[in-house]
Write a structure and sequence with these properties.
This protein is of the alpha+beta class. The chain is about 15% helix and about 25% strand. It is built from 15 helices and 54 strands. The strands form 14 sheets. Strands 41-40-39-32-29-28-43-42 form an eight-stranded parallel beta sheet. A six-stranded antiparallel beta sheet has the order 46-48-49-54-51-52. Strand 6 and strand 7 form a beta hairpin. The longest helix has 20 residues. The N and C termini lie far apart (about 70 Å). The N terminus is likely disordered.
């Protein structure tokens, strides 16, 4: 028999589904035969096979065999049960055979098949120990399992843990620790696992327990002291010389119920299986999927989930799937009824996309943290080295959970809400300890594999969105790289030493091996052997190389100079990186110093750095993205944007896709001014509207000098000397052509409105106050809260209540600018929760919690803002009153061009949040009067027929005055003038707020 590669990875490494399936389909196995009779009722002709466990660190043992003349059991075979210290056993009914051929496995891909020869065993009691076979019963009367051994027999209680596997990590007195995670423990009886340790000459051992996936019980940091003989450990209570907790207890022989409702959805050469969870008297520990039909025949795969997917099956092949459940004792349920599907053709490599290229003001934006939105492929989930410490492990919530597959699968949800643009967090390969958000870019030329799957690459996402008429806005970072630099530009060498404190952290360097976040060790850390050296590297610039400091890590380990990134240590050369920490957030150093030790500040005044970034993001432009949201834009001087980065973007789009697509490539910057005044504490260089303008004078051709000259000049001119614009304002009742000749190329997130959205009226009045200083505020991106802050720089998601949310939305969807909603706000998801606490608390308790549980089920969108069909949890999500509200607002905004692109005015308007908007081009004249929540009077307006698209009410205006009643909080009124070009009547159906 040849070794069988099962689903589970080798210790310390995780495989993506694609690689797994390739391995599975490349491996052969004996044909499945009839299962062996249960050993509870052995036949007269049987073999009781004893297997020695002390040479293995397996957590489970299976006997895979074929009686002479018979077929093989299905891999991994039948579970073996504890027999006596150091031995497990299985009794096999041989029928008419005189013996059997056998191999042994842990059920997770590790085999003992006698070096490929398999074992030939006869009838009766037989032993297999370290490759040797014998006829004996080591556990029977007169048997001696291992004479003269000095052992510790450790029993560990599992009833309250919920772990699938248990490992014993130990150090005999005077000896060395086992390699992490230790050796596997086998089930002794329900609620208990055990392991017998050969102590040699030691009198005891120090131990800790773990689940092999980063969750530990180390006695609150003190470890456990265990002596010789039988010891039990239960809820941190150690009982030496204990009685066997399994003595007299019946073994768990009750199998779980069969899983129910197995379904298989096929997509090309991929398949997605789902089923309902099984039940068991003790507990279901996992499931076994049998795949039959493709080469090499029957394949058996283990999984802990009720969802399993394969992405690289053979094209145009019929596959049959069954699933059964297993418990900790190895009992297997009856299989589900088989489900068969036939695969299609392998999809071709996705063609490069092309931006949609329409006016971005037409498209309301839905903003998602991709890794937290929806999980379409669990094989690329990763928890990282802080999985346990953060509390994410306790919530079974790895930081990288959502992915492009999950987003593609729920584009219909976003379209059903009415959004036609999706802003996603950065996609480049990240590298730090907690990098799920995407802002710790390391390889700017590669998409992070924790987001991609076969058939769901970034290109696939762009193409899938475009096929639905939806745009993709990619979050991009020019200001900083990860703490470990930028691959291909500069990666610093850090000091490291694999001593008794740090050997767990540093991987041994391997020539040619690179960082791969999909490959995590047993502590959740990817390979880092490429980052460090004990020997001082040639041309080292880091001062005091490797000298111990006064500081220690949280674990109490000594920290050395040059061990961790710092701008002031010399570890990062000034050619590529700035050399200081920010001290004054409104000072010149905010553009030339580090924000945080995870955000190494790039020297964007350097031509090599600029070319690295420009060429990196050109690749994504070529893929057809529709625009960039620019992170930390304020921390790069405006002159660098207008001289280099912005022209490069538009030139690339025009070169690839033409001038019209370039004109509508949407770039909006995060200029984070968290103040309520028009100009950020008087510093124009740090105010959002400043970045929408071209410089007004020439500066030195040397970029490093130019940024200082611009900073000094503009602060000297001050707020009073800044340019003004009427591009957002009507001239009376008339729309006029905007003058964008001095536009910088960067639009902005409306930080002023964002900061004041604690109250919609405040947001409205503060937003208006900055519009004359913005090149064209009709392009402002408007949101209430985000992945960083709520209103008034709150660290919590907005919690003003449903009525206030409805009012905020009614304002955003009718006032100038582009409405943007942070994922989940349509159901007030995580309202009031802290948005971000890093790894100091579980993501599940924050504003960045996983949203996919609310999206499960089926959904099909019609036009924007319409859902044709939905069932399951997503159908219940759609019942939230704010969902209905935002759907109708999107329908109304889409039907009234003035609400999308119109200029506005409050001249002749009385009322709290009331305004008029108009947009005119060669074929359209759209004029709307809006009041949000309160009543309003409009004077000096054109006479004619005005129709409220909310209620359908029609009014004939004569004398230029229209009075609108107070509709109630969030219940806006939008009266549209009949200009003879198809003015709509009532748009959409009455809802909880628009009625």
């Amino acid at each position: 028999m040849r070794s069988w590669l099962a689903r589970h990875p080798a210790p310390g490494r995780l495989w993506p589904v694609l690689g797994l399936l390739v391995a599975l389909l490349a491996t052969t196995t004996p044909a499945a035969g009839d299962p062996a009779a249960d050993d509870a009722a052995p036949a007269a002709n049987n073999a009781t096979v004893f297997y020695w466990t002390e040479s293995r660190d397996w957590s489970a043992y299976h006997l895979h065999y074929a009686p002479e003349g018979g077929g093989w059991t299905d891999p991994p075979g039948l579970p073996m049960e504890p027999a006596c210290a150091g031995w497990v056993k299985r009794t096999v009914d041989l029928g008419g055979a005189s013996g059997l051929t056998a191999a042994f496995t842990d059920g997770a891909g590790t085999w003992d098949n006698n070096d490929g020869e398999d074992y030939r065993l006869g009838a009766g009691p037989v032993t297999v120990r370290d490759g040797e076979t014998a006829v004996s019963d080591p556990c029977g009367p007169g048997g001696d399992p291992d004479p003269g051994r000095n052992t510790a027999e450790v029993y560990y209680a599992t009833a309250t843990l919920g772990w699938r596997t248990v490992n014993l990590h130990y150090r005999p007195d005077g000896g060395a620790w086992t390699s992490v995670p230790g050796v596997g423990m086998a089930e002794a009886c329900p609620g208990w696992v055990k392991r017998t340790v050969d102590l040699g000459g030691a009198s005891g051992l120090t131990a800790a327990f773990n689940n092999g996936a980063g969750t530990w019980d180390n006695n609150n940091g003190a470890d456990y002291r265990i002596g010789t003989g039988l010891t039990t450990v239960r809820d941190r209570q150690v009982v030496p010389d204990a009685t066997d907790p399994c003595a007299g207890r019946e073994p768990d022989t009750e199998a779980p119920s069969a899983p129910a409702n197995l379904t298989a959805d096929v997509d090309g050469v991929g398949v997605l299986l789902r089923w309902d969870a099984a039940r068991d008297d003790v507990g279901v520990t996992g499931y076994r999927v049998t795949v039959a039909g493709g080469p090499p025949g029957t394949v058996v795969v283990d999984t802990a989930s009720t969802v399993w997917s394969a992405t690289d099956l053979r094209p145009r092949t019929r596959y049959t799937f069954t699933v059964l459940a297993r418990d900790a004792a190895g009992n297997l349920s009856e299989p589900t009824p088989p489900v068969a599907v036939t695969t299609g053709d392998a999809p071709p490599a996705p063609a490069p996309g092309e931006p949609i290229g329409t006016d971005p003001r037409r498209d309301p934006i839905y903003f998602v943290l991709t890794a937290r939105f929806n999980d379409g492929d669990s094989a690329n989930n990763r928890g990282g080295g802080l999985h346990e410490r953060s509390g994410n492990a306790a919530h079974d919530d790895p930081m990288f959970r959502g992915d492009f597959r999950g987003l593609i699968d729920r584009l219909d949800y976003i379209k059903g809400l009415g959004f036609s643009a999706v802003w996603i967090t950065p996609v480049v390969l990240n590298r730090s300890d907690y990098d799920y958000h995407g802002y710790h870019g390391w390889d700017f030329y590669r998409v992070d594999p924790r987001l991609e799957s076969s058939g769901a690459t970034y290109q696939d996402l762009i193409n899938a969105a475009h096929a639905k008429g939806m745009k993709i806005y990619q979050d991009v970072v020019y200001n900083h790289s990860s703490r470990w630099g930028a691959r291909g530009l500069y990666t610093p060498t850090a000091y490291g030493v694999r001593d008794e404190q740090w050997d767990w952290y540093y991987d041994v360097p391997e020539e040619g091996r690179a960082y791969d976040p999909l490959e995590e060790d047993e502590r959740g850390y990817p390979y880092n052997g490429d980052l460090w050296s004990t020997e001082e590297p040639a041309a080292n610039t880091c001062v005091r190389w490797g000298q111990p400091t006064q500081w220690t890590s949280p674990e109490g380990y000594r920290i050395y100079e040059c061990q961790w990134p710092s701008p002031t240590s010399g570890m990062f050369p000034e050619e590529f990186y700035h050399q200081c920490w920010i001290g004054n957030w409104e000072g010149e150093d905010s553009r030339s110093c580090w924000l945080h030790d995870d955000l190494a500040d790039l020297n964007t005044e350097n031509a090599t750095v600029r070319d690295y970034l420009i060429n990196a993001y050109n690749r994504f432009i070529d893929m057809g993205v529709d625009g960039f949201r620019v992170d930390t834009a304020v921390h790069i001087p405006r002159v660098m944007w207008t001289r280099h980065f912005l022209p490069a973007m538009y030139e690339r789009v025009e070169e690839r896709f033409g001038a019209e697509k370039a004109a509508n490539f949407f770039v909006f910057g995060e200029v984070a001014a968290f103040v309520n005044d028009k100009w950020n504490r008087g510093s124009v260089n740090h105010s959002a509207q400043f970045f929408t303008w071209q410089p007004r004078r020439a500066y030195s051709p040397d970029d490093a000098e130019a940024v200082l000259e611009e900073y000094a000049h503009e602060n000297g001119v001050g707020p009073a000397g800044q340019p003004t614009s009427d591009n957002a304002f009507l001239d009376g009742n008339e729309y006029h052509a905007p003058d964008r000749s001095r536009f910088s190329g960067m639009h902005i997130i409306d930080m002023r409105m964002h900061m004041n959205f604690g109250d919609a009226a405040n947001a409205f009045h503060n937003g208006r106050d900055s519009d004359d200083a913005t090149n064209d505020a009709t392009y402002n991106v408007v949101y209430v809260d985000s992945h960083d802050y709520g209103p008034n720089k709150s660290g919590n998601r907005y919690a003003g209540g449903t009525d206030a949310w409805a009012e905020n939305m009614s304002l955003m969807w009718t006032f100038r600018g582009i409405p943007t909603l942070y994922y989940g706000s349509e159901i007030e998801f995580q309202a009031g929760e802290r948005i971000d606490c890093g790894p100091s608390c579980p993501l599940a308790t924050t504003g960045r919690a996983y949203f996919g549980d609310h999206l499960e089920g089926h959904i099909q969108a019609g036009d924007f803002g319409e859902v044709v069909a939905a069932d399951g949890p997503v159908a219940r999500t759609l019942e939230h009153p704010l969902v209905e509200h935002v759907q109708r607002l999107n329908q109304i905004r889409r039907a009234v061009p003035a609400l999308q692109m119109g200029q506005y005015s409050t001249e002749g308007v009385s009322g709290g949040m009331a305004f008029k908007r108009r947009w005119t081009d060669a074929g359209t004249d759209s004029f709307a009067l809006v009041t949000v929540s309160g009543g309003a009077r409009f004077t000096g307006i054109p006479d004619g027929r005005w129709t409220d698209v909310v209620t359908g009410r029609t009014v004939e205006v004569t004398g230029g005055t229209l009075d609108i009643e107070a509709p109630g909080k969030g219940n806006a009124r939008v009266y549209v003038l009949d200009t003879g070009d198809g003015t709509p009547g009532r748009v959409g159906a009455p809802g909880p707020y628009l009625r």
